Amino acid sequence: MGSPPLTPAEMALLLQLAQRHSVHAGDVVLDPGETARSLVLLLSGDVVLGSRAHDGGLRTERSLAGPAWLDASSAWLGEPYAMEALALSDVVIAEIPLDALKTHLTTHPQLAQRFCVNLARRVNELTEASRNLLHNDAPARFARWLLQRCPGTLDHCELRLQERKRDIAQQLAMTPETLSRLMRSFESRGVVSVRGYNLSVHDLPALRALAGDDA
């Protein structure tokens, strides 16, 4: 919910409204065939989001690791969930019924503002993701994807890739073969090292340069 931290009253309200559920790995977390009635928060675990292809497979668009908002917008629109969410691991989610939340927002204006800021932040993230796909080449897209998963204050980070390479490639609008070549290229430059699903970033400044981020 951003900063400053939630006040005790805001925290108590959200805890009162939230309905916690556990979902097993491999099960559907969000079904796009259902109309959204709640804001959904991923408390723990890993999920992948996307839409079904003609062959029935899930076309991956992005992944999330808790804690993170899984869907904070569909319920406001009274529409079905925008994407299907599939649990990559056992996950815990919290659903906040929107109708119940609305009755409290007039008496908690700062909390209402927090939700507005959260939605604005998500719009900004989607704009950046769209710009990345439209205007950057494959190495820059992959570099930016890695940077989004690395703490900005560190010079080195360790990542556990929860998704299959073909799912990551789909998110980045490239083939799995292209992604594999990029991983080998980044390794040969000493920027990263890959061992199975474990990826180590050794040179964040070099990764930022590959992403086209001079900062």
Automatic annotation (TrEMBL):
Pfam families in UniProt: cNMP_binding, HTH_Crp_2
Top-rank taxon, per record: Bacteria
All copies of domain Cyclic nucleotide-binding, residue ranges: 6-122
Keyword DNA-binding carried by entry: yes
Span of domain HTH crp-type: 136-205
Keywords for this protein: DNA-binding, Transcription, Transcription regulation
UniProt xrefs under SUPFAM superfamilies: cAMP-binding domain-like, Winged helix' DNA-binding domain
A cellular component annotation (GO) from this entry: cytosol
Gene Ontology MF terms in the entry: DNA binding; DNA-binding transcription factor activity
Protein's name in the database: Transcriptional regulator, Crp/Fnr family
Lineage: Bacteria, Pseudomonadati, Pseudomonadota, Betaproteobacteria, Burkholderiales
